[in-house]
Batch of 3 targets.
Target 1
Amino acid sequence: MFVVVLTPGAAPSPRGRRGRVGGMSVPLRLVLSAQRCGAAAVHLARDAEALAPALIDRRVTIPIRTGAPPPEVVTIEVPADVVVHADAFRALADAVADGRARVFGHGDAKVVARAAAATRTSHGPPVPLVFAHAFAFPPMRVATLRDAVRANGALLRACRKPTDGWTSRYLNRNVSLTLTRLLIHLGLRPNHISLAIVAIGVASGVVAARGTHDGFVLGAALLQVQSTLDGCDGEVARMTHRQSRLGEWLDTIGDDLSNYAFFAGASFGMHRATNSVAWLWVGAVIVGCGGLASAIEYRYLARVGSGDLLVYPIVGGPPRHPVARVAAGLQPLFKRDTFILLTFLAAAAGALSAALIASAVGAVAILITVMRTEARLARSDTPSERR
């Protein structure tokens, strides 16, 4: 357990919209970041008590107190005009387990963590914290409009994910982060954005079902738009600290629903264009196998209390067979972001049929992988994996 102590900043922060970072004031962002990382309370230092009215917000669920914290808890002191990566609070709290103080940042933008009084082993200067995070940034003091812009950019970059595929990393995420700046300024909520993104995905299937070349291209383009915008709801949620279980489920189900809507619509459109029943079977394989795999994954997520598909422990391990190694090397091409982009390019080139067949093969492969994962979980003796 740890508490965060807000101390006065080095200088008055800019007020009004100029003093807001990611749609909120810097002190409120500090409180919400600490809360997200498990802080038990936030204490206002003697000279920082005037901040209390600015910390009244429905998102704040931990106590806001004045005065010194109890000596038996870990304390993290942070200036009220500094923006800190949210995960740094948890890293600092964990780092003082050996009883030695830690410091993250330098100068006026410095965060100091101290162990509980009973476990402190050193009264010397704090040891610098090495914060390992894919998109980490040092504490940033916000005293001017330029500082606020820099801090906002750092927070947006921190919304990137190491698990992003090629297309998300170099294309989709750049577009979504730019749009997220605007969406935060407009005050839109993440769940509202999720519903709008799902509507675009469903529309892609309706348009593709027309069975014309223009319909296929426009439908695939809408699916690509949905894939690009898919990051916005999560980015807005993280930037504004509005993450929720409902939001996770909306994002997960929305992606699957968009996929099935487009590929079902495109398969029906190919049937209309060619009068071949085979395309109806292709669509049935995509939706049937994909839907069954999704249902199995959803059951696991419901059991562990999450809506994030990344939590699902997909079976892995280094491939041994040469064919399996080749398949593993091609796996990035079948990540959702890249595959949807390739589908759009195939539709534009008049080769959507190849993308549909590849999607059907992929749906079968995913179902087999999910069933193997379920078999492994059933054999596992680890309670956390059997929930």
Target 2
Amino acid sequence: MRGTMMRPIAIAAGGTGGHLYPAIATAAALAERGERVVLLTDRRTAERSSVAFASAEVHVLRGEGIAGRGLTRAPRAFASLALGAIEARAILERLAPAAIVAFGGYPSVAPVLASRTRVPKHRSRIVLHEQNAVLGRANRLLARFADLLALSFAETARVPERTRTALIGTPIRPGIAALARQAYAPAGPGEAIRLLVVGGSLGARVFADLIPAALALVPQALRQRLVLTMQCRTEDMARAEEDLGRLGLAFRLAPFFDDMAGLYMSAHLVLCRAGASTIAELACAGRPALLVPYPYATDDHQSANARALAAAGAAEVFDQSTLTPRALAERITTLLGSPARLQAMAEAARRFARPHAAHDLAAAVLALAPMETK
């Protein structure tokens, strides 16, 4: 703790869970060190994350994403970001944060740009965190202003030259980070085999189509041992339940799961998307995975994330456009019939993991933050 009158640390984050969850974990790590944390975010994030950031001051800024807006809506987005920068400037003048930790996406833009317009001796240190294996567009714009760019992947594409970087990892929820201490054990002969299927914050409709069709092609002796837990959109639930109900296996469907740590810990194989937080969680949990990257992710960053985990030996990757139920059934059958392969993938995932990323990022921020009080 840097004193009772210490300058706060500002977290700039919002938008998708991929940006927000690492921010929540980092804020918690900073708070554990006695730091005063403030959140600079957009209205929608403030409304849905009040519990997660309960101990932090929350300041809402105007702003909209620009990507995908088209020519007619882009000017409005630019104007909103400009107004957000004006609002951020006023907040920063009052708070004088020692550092701003920005997690990408449009909610990061206004605070960082506003900080660079302040008198140099009062400027906040700028730390950008990139979750993905391709530097996001907001971070590409802001990298020139950063004192440090914290990376999650050793090989991250589109990082500008002469940018100061540090390999930190993606901060994740403490309950999942703690799984790094739990050993993986494949199912024994005749035991239940637990297959976990998750599709990101909104689920994945493609899995509601693929999984029942693929499991119908798995040999019956194996299928009868399966216990399936699958994230499923509400609108796809009835159809998936009907299709799975004909297969004679135990299953549980839900649009959202609260206990992801418990689900990871019990899973023998995970089939999922390849968002940065998902990759980090799989690695910490030490679980073998079949990855189907979301094909419409910006700059195809999920494919880059997936390739990194596959290169480490912890996952296999499928292209959604060419993936068929038969091909998926064959890989599920082969992997679940090879406990040694599953064990090797789990161990590779553990080696890839960075379970202390939240605390490492907090330490990196504080090492840069000026020590003087307000």
Target 3
Amino acid sequence: MSVTILVGAQFGDEGKGKIVDYISASADMVVRFQGGDNAGHTVVNERGAFKLHLIPCGIFKKGCKTLAGTGMVINPDELLKELDELESSGIDVEHLYISSRAIILMPYHIELDCLSESTGRTGIGTTKRGIGYAYADRARRDALRFENLLDPEYREIRLQRILPTINAELVAKGGKSLSIEFLREKLNYWAERLGHRIVDAVSFVNDSINSGEKLLFEGQLGAMKDIDLGIYPYVTSSNPTAAYAAVAAGFPISKITEIIGVLKAFSSAVGTGPFPTEIKGDEAYVFRGTGENIDDEFGARTGRARQVGWLDLPVLKYASIINGFTSLAVCKIDKLDDFDEIKICVKYKLDGMEINHMPSARELERVEPVYITVPGWKTQTRQIRQYSDLPINAKKYLEIIEKATGVPVKYIGVGPARDEIITRNIK
């Protein structure tokens, strides 16, 4: 039995899809434990390049069970679209399951999100996918869950109770009300297409753990986007930190055997909010690219150009503290191959004083990053598969990360494809 949790150590977009795809080769079950289709995990393998927004990356391993978990808010239309795209590429999707307790993201959630962003009522740079509103309905107990698809009589009662409030909110924000007939038709269609995939996730997960299977839990986004511990209010509406995997899935934290933090060899972020090490102008192009390549820095969901910047060690230290990483995966080390010198943020100054804690988002907008400069390696790493073959300065760069976080680097990504990775034996 082993339970591995894999989460982002920065602002999201760290390369989790690649690492999950690689690790899932030895997994019996892969679980997405939070979030919705507001972000994506990019996987490049022998079947092609895929951007998954809801389906766990373990879907590519034949026979591996994949679960869209309880902590998720799931737009069934988007899930069906992903399923159809995978099937058209010859991917077996028979073993995809959905937690009965997962929240159904409804059409009105998307409309409310779009109305709020367009009128400036929120203005935090959401993806307009309805994620926040779906989670808000969960909190106020107005959400529909996937278990309701299997109970049409109760589903109708719930819809009758919920819709007047929803429509009043839509109209108040300048939108149009939705008919119950339209929503009823949607729910009936989703029940027909997805009903056979719905399971009781608590028993589903715990039975697998207790039978000695290997489980991998994948988080979406990263530590700095956690609704409680991140750069609030520029955060997601769930908890992409490791502990929430156990909370959402309903298994004891004592069962966790490994927690992998995934990071890029530099920093990136999508959306608005503080980003201390940001590089702007022509210099940013080196990291970002043009968008023509699968590993260029553009959002997998939105296509928006990501903010890019130098590696931020205070962020990594903070992520390690709140997650308890046992190992790290450093992706895109190859993006630094051509630099003569590389800057690393080692600490912050706030109002002229050095600080040793993660400040609030408002304070983070004012911090001054303190950098060190290290020599680059000026060697192409894309073809390297053994840690011993890495350039000495690349090893030193990784050692700086290890020393700052107190966590060993186990995986090193040297390109976007599944096999473009170095696995390091650590004790």
